[in-house]
Amino acid sequence: MSNIEVIKKHALTGHQNPIFALERNVDSTLLFTAGNDKGVVEWDLIKGEFKRVLLPVKSSVYCLHRIANSSLLAVGERSGLVTIVDFEANKVVAKLIHHEKPVFGIQSFYSKPELIVSSEDGTVSIWNTQSFQRLYNFSVSKDTVRCIALNKEENVFALGSKDSKIRIFDAKEYSLIHEIDEHSAAITALCFSPDTHQLLTGGRDAQLNIFDPIDYHLVKNLTAHMFTVYGIVYNPELPILATASRDKSIKIWRAEDYSLLKNISLEKGYPVHRLSINNILWSSRNTLITVSDDKTVMVWEINIT
């Protein structure tokens, strides 16, 4: 893994304002994006082109999440509304009305029909994904609960808040089991490693922290970017991960020791975003997708030898 070739395959345009959220379908043929405009957009990833507006919305969308074991997409809005749309049947199946402030995080389980929703109101709500009835609601912080990460075993999940703290919850009882206070600013990205042996966290302090989930002690600290870390994602097949930032760069890291493999940035000569990169995902082994304040979706081919 000594050489990385980076090719920009597509620059998808059509959004009229900054893009904050992205998600894909199961086989990565479709991409969904949304942000500070009036709709959730569906793109054809095979052709690299606009397909349709999947869902008109009345307020900005801060998060998109495909519900596990389904063709349902959960759309979290600035208004606090979460709309559940079946993207195969092309219909709205439920509207989750509870939060009165923006929804920033949504996560679902494979092992049980439940959905976690986090909000600027500092609380988290739990919903049944079959009846779409609210099961629980609990307070987490006095500030925004920005992001959610569920580990592979689905026995614990982490919540990152504006108060710079990460709180670990039991996924069965929804009880608080640990609190981490290592960042100096709001938490903006969370990710468990695929083997669940590490919890990675990013914040507005530009730091990337790696914790051991046995007792959540800090294993490694990196100043990963110049500004806010908005995304941390592991490659689905290769031992690498990618981060994205407000500093307009994408970085590829070796998963084994977190050494930097590639800095994809304007300074390094890459045709990357001109403004903040707000979200990132791997759609396949060699395809990385980013969205930005510059209103553009970029699809990258990452070849590693």
Automatic annotation (TrEMBL):
Q: Pfam families from the entry?
A: ANAPC4_WD40 (PF12894), WD40 (PF00400)
Would I find Repeat among this entry's keywords? yes
Key word Disulfide bond present: no
Q: Which UniProt keywords apply?
A: Repeat, WD repeat
InterPro entries named in the record: Apc4-like_WD40_dom, WD40/YVTN_repeat-like_dom_sf, WD40_PAC1, WD40_repeat_CS, WD40_repeat_dom_sf, WD40_rpt
Q: Domain named Anaphase-promoting complex subunit 4-like WD40: which ranges?
A: 117-189
WD repeat copies, ranges? 12-53, 96-137, 180-212, 222-263, 270-305
What is this protein called in UniProt? WD domain-containing protein, G-beta repeat-containing protein
Q: Which organism is it from?
A: Olivibacter domesticus (Pseudosphingobacterium domesticum)
